Amino acid sequence: MEKYDVIVIGGGPAGYVAAIRCAQLGMKTACVDKWLDEQGKYRLGGTCLNVGCIPSKALLDSSHHYYYLKTEAHAHGIRCQELQMDVAAMQARKQEIVKTLTQGISGLFKKNKVIHVTGQARLISSTEVEVTVPPDKVDMLTGTSLIIATGSLPVHLPITPVDQEFIVDSTGALAFQQVPKQLGIIGAGAIGLELGSVWSRLGSQVTILEALPDFLSFADRKIAAMALKELKKQGLNIQLGAQVTATQVEQGQVQINYQNAQGPQQLQVDKLVVAVGRRPNTEGLNGQAVGIALDERGFIRVNEHRQTAVPNIYAIGDVIGGPMLAHKGSEEGILVAERLAGQKTELSYETVPWVIYTHPEIAWVGKTEEQLQSLGIEYKVGQFPFMASGRAKAQGEVSGMVRVIAEAKTDRLLGVHIMGANASELIAEAVVSMEFEGSAEDLARIIHAHPTLSEAVHEAALAVEGRAIHI
Ligand code: FAD
Ligand code: NAD
């Protein structure tokens, strides 16, 4: 039986980062993962690298280039004749990126002396892990500490049985080999909007059915309203308050019955994507048998140090809930590793950045006005439209704005909300400022290079005290 200081179960962004950090800190570390690629080979990287963040961004970039050449390049004097989209080439590029990055993690494991154990892990006791590789290979490992990072799986609805041919989840929607003429999507969350954008840019007629009456209900209301308008302008038919009541696959088409404020509706599509959230993955782990407690939604319960009900077993990433984001899981991995090494690492969930990679991008950190109102916190807001930014004009990317929210009494930054080109990068400045408990004035007094999109963040911070220069 092989003995380790730490056994990490799951090699996604939470688990692989935890394993590398543990090894850097001198712990003998193994990382067990069961992910198999299309060729039946074991791969690290979890959902994020294999069927999540990375492949979706590869397709978003490819489809954006196509859409840009088709609809916007002419404004720059660029004429394209016979523009064609080679979907197979786009998918091959995506697969190559995934392969390179997942192999990169194997390389990092070697460099840091993390042992990659392949197979399905099952807890036997608080220190023993059984690892099975079908058909009949079974190994036993023991670890002084265990870190569970088994991630999440897509939620499937009983009325939309996923067959990965006509009714697919995000994994299926990343792998279409042809552009569906009519594409239905259930759920206008991050996945619905990102993958809806990909296929819409390539020519699909996309209809997104969202159950809630509000669009991006957890985002800033003004940014959400702007984003809805912009995405509709791009051709996404986003229907709010739409409840799917039945689906049926018939002669290669999916018939969808749904109900909205106008009454019962019908829609026929070539493919239907179910993108209604993800659920914790504890399948086959046997965690409860060794004393790990789950909450009512199946997430592993942890304390502020990400320790489960069993003191030497920790859990991180999607499987413990909270924001289901790769960077949140990775930071939890670092926190647990450093605490195991005796350090006093802390992590603030107040400054987790959120990004939706539509075009323009939507990004935010901190609280919205509605959250502050419900907490009874008085605030002031400064905003600046990209329309008034010289760089945005030069780039031809003028839609969107930056909104900076600061506490009325102290001027402390409470939230920054952006819709605009490169919002995913611009938000980093706001995260740093908030993490350092900066004020709107701090942001307003920092010199920003000209001409850059970041000047819009600067101007929005100036606008908090009504002293923006360019509006
Ligand atoms: P996972 O990445 O799910 O990894 C868990 C790993 O554990 C898997 O490899 C699994 O095989 C393994 N495992 C599970 N059980 C066992 C077991 N018993 N034995 C052995 N191995 C096991 N997040 C972002 O921050 N930015 C994005 O842009 C983004 N885009 C996304 C796009 C899509 C289409 C999807 C689906 C998700 C996206 N996410 C994004 C979310 C992100 O992928 C997850 O938050 C992240 O992968 C969670 O990391 P994790 O390590 O907790 O779990
Ligand atoms: P989500 O929670 O972001 O959105 C799901 C949407 O589906 C919600 O708007 C919800 O109201 C709606 N919905 C739920 N049930 C419904 C029903 N029966 N009918 C119609 N609508 C329904 O989930 P997702 O888009 O599936 O993404 C899953 C996870 O992956 C999220 O937690 C997200 O954080 C993560 N993710 C992140 C990114 C990113 O960071 N850019 C990208 C993709 C995914």
TL;DR of this structure?
This protein is an alpha/beta fold.
Walkthrough of the structure:
Helices cover 32% and strands 26% of the residues. The chain has helices at 13-24, 46-51, 53-71, 87-112, 170-173, 190-201, 221-233, 326-340, 369-375, 390-395, 423-435, 440-445, 454-463, and strands spanning 2-9, 29-33, 115-118, 120-123, 128-133, 137-148, 152-154, 167-168, 182-186, 205-209, 237-239, 243-250, 253-260, 263-269, 271-274, 278-280, 313-315, 354-356, 361-366, 379-385, 401-407, 413-420. It has three domains: 2-154 and 279-347, FAD/NAD(P)-binding domain (3-Layer(bba) Sandwich); 167-276, FAD/NAD(P)-binding domain; 351-463, Enolase-like, domain 1. The structure holds flavin-adenine dinucleotide and nicotinamide-adenine-dinucleotide. Nicotinamide-adenine-dinucleotide binds next to α6 and β18. Flavin-adenine dinucleotide binds at residues 9-15, 32-35, 46-48, 52-53, 56, 120-121, 149-152, 170, 191, 281, 284-285, 317-319, 324-327, 329.
The CA-CA distance between the termini, in Å, is 69 Å
Largest sheet: 7 strands, mixed
Small ligands present: flavin-adenine dinucleotide, nicotinamide-adenine-dinucleotide
CATH class of the largest domain: Alpha Beta
- Domain unit count: 3
The beta-strand count equals 22
Q: How confident overall, as mean pLDDT?
A: 97
What is the molecular shape? globular
Helical content stands at 25-40%
Strand content: 25-35%
What is the count of DSSP helices, taking H or I runs of 4+ residues? 13
Low-confidence stretches: none
- CATH topology value of the largest domain: FAD/NAD(P)-binding domain
Rg calc: 24 Å
Query: What is the correct CATH architecture of the largest domain?
Result: 3-Layer(bba) Sandwich
User: Which structural class best describes the helix and strand composition?
Assistant: alpha/beta
CATH level-four homologous superfamily name of the largest domain: FAD/NAD(P)-binding domain
